[in-house]
Amino acid sequence: MVVNPHKWMYVPAEAGCILVRQPRVLRHTFQVVASYLREESDASPEQPIDFKDYGPQLHRSFRALKVWMTFKAYGAKKLRAAIESNIEVMRYLADQIDKSQDFARVAPVPLSVVCFQYRTSDTSVHGDQKYLDDLNSRLLDALEKDGRVFLSGTKVNGKKVLRACSVNHRLRREDVDLLLKVIPEVARSLVG
């Protein structure tokens, strides 16, 4: 199982963790057995853990310090509250999308990712998936050029969709409202 504290725990970049049931498998994946790295004591079954054998970079970096410092500075309670706030705000986005004729949500929202399509208020195009795929691809580029909001794109069940993901502790409902205001504004220039 992989945990990326640099995403949802608000830790500076490059702080990943892999949890394994059998540590020796991980060790055998990355272990370098060059003679200049081995010592006679390595043959002992009681040898200490050599952390260079557990990652691809062949050294003992201390990325865990960032995670530890984040917990020390903010505490688990505040981190938990920030994550719960992200989930609540993204569910608010999903609810707003569900209420709008201009959008269609295409996947459940168990955490903080909302995948949806912009369809326009013109119901005659809602069934034309090729048109919607093209529109959403062009819309993604246009939103990036506009610069007021940023979304990524992906495919869900073969549909090209907009993907809103938040791991930002500052996100508020007002930001979601802005997003849902900007998307149709930018899309109008694409639709005609």
What does the secondary structure layout of this molecule look like, with pairings?
Elements: E1 2-3, H1 5-8, E2 17-18, H2 23-30, H3 64-99, E3 103-105, E4 113-118, H4 129-146, E5 152-156, E6 159-165, H5 173-191
Antiparallel strand pairs: 1-2, 3-4, 4-6, 5-6
Notes on the protein architecture:
This protein is of the alpha+beta class and 192 residues long. It has a 4-stranded antiparallel sheet. The protein folds into 2 domains: 2-75, no CATH class; 78-191, Alpha-Beta Complex (Aspartate Aminotransferase, domain 1), CATH 3.90.1150. Strand 3 (103-105) and strand 4 form a beta hairpin. The chain has helices spanning 5-8, 23-30, 64-99, 129-146, 173-191; strands at 2-3, 17-18, 103-105, 113-118, 152-156, 159-165. The protein contains 5 helices and 6 strands.
Give a brief description.
The protein is built from 5 helices and 6 strands. It is of the alpha+beta class.
- What low-confidence regions span 5 or more consecutive residues with pLDDT below 50? none
Biggest sheet, open or closed, and with what strands and sense?
4 strands, antiparallel
Q: Give the beta-strand count.
A: 6
Structural class call reads alpha+beta
| Alpha carbon gap, first and last residue | 47 Å
C-alpha geometry: elongated
Count of discrete alpha- or pi-helical segments spanning 4 or more residues: 5
